[in-house]
Amino acid sequence: MDAGLRPSPGFVLVLWASCLAMLAVGGNSTAIMAALPTMTADLSLSPAGAQWAVNAYLVTSAACTVLGGQAADRFGARRAAMGGFVLFILASCIIALAGTQDLLLVGRSLQGFAASFAVPGTLAAVNTDATPERKAAAIGAWTGLLVLGFSIGPLIGGLLTHVAGWRTIFWFNAGLMTMAAIGLAAAGLASTGSGAHSRRTDWLGFVLLATFMVALVFGLHAVPHAGSAPLEAAVPFVVAAVALALLLAAERRVAAPLVDLSFFSRRGFVMGVAIGALSMFCIMALLFHFNLYAQSRDGLRLTPLEAGAALLPLGAALLALALSASALAARIGLRTAMTGGLVTIVVAAAVLGVAVVERQMALLAVGFLLMGGGLAVPYASAPRLALSALSPAQAGQGSGIVNACTFLGGSAGVATGAIASTLGSFPAVLAMIAIAGLAGAALSRFIAKPA
Question: Is residue 134 pLDDT above 80, yes or no?
């Protein structure tokens, strides 16, 4: 092997640490799903508290991920990633020791803030440190470990909850992230960012963006109680609308805006953002509400381990097709692949609906296999579609916006699924997911064909 192509020991450590961190972040996003019923009983969580145990992480990540990307540019990717690692370890310990709902939500919010620095920081470090010949493979490994954690999270969460209790999930996450931090520290924290210290942070844009996202999700959470407490639902939506209007006005006047509105004039970017958000909307709604239904007395009466194992076909299909999504899109065309995947979501939702009503576990496995396959292509390909509409110099900021919208889509899925669940239990959630799949399929027809 040519010495110039051989990876340096420092890069090997950075890649190893980054991949291990993404395994922890990906698993953290979904492992909690299988543990939620047990956590609800142990900590006396309210229905809203159980939803916020998931959404506190997602909303904070959504609101802060653009800020985390800017930190990687300004202070160095490795430093930003290490800051995220340390905060993630601290947050995981807080959750593992939590005795109240409030402390749990503080820890989950801090985890989301930590992830908003760890994810863009590690991606920037891997992208910058890799040689041109190894960049694609390195980023593929980073993505693969993130998707792997996301895919096996429910099974790992169910297993740890069943064997040793839900708190073990977060001790396990803290251990993984500690190993990643040790690896990154051993590689050194020399700056790998652009060093763009002259670019001032758009703090007004950040505050308005965060206010919009948090208020929107609060409003969605309050909708089921709108009949008895209309102001609790109306006020957050008004605040969200005002914050969005102010954000749009402010970002047009800022020299270096947090959200570059010109990106949304490009069809590919808009399609990528919208389909990515819809994909995460479906994934998080499905995982959250299936686990609550599957472990309830009125549902399938499964243990946490059984509920996590039931989701294994979904995770396996999601991982396998996400890693081959680019090859599939190259072979049959991105628009065809996207449309096919989103239509498959509709079919899978129907199969799952029949399975849960008839309590057919074999059919449930088929439905989850179809759902994982359907979600994989839009989930994996949407970010690439969005970023392909931007120049390389805009990729960092564009990636932050894409990730923010994706996290927000997941949070909206959990909250909107709660509205559907009050109307018709888990089958109504599946109907909502099918509608989202149809909407995504319709949007995908606007993806431009290659010249």
Answer: no
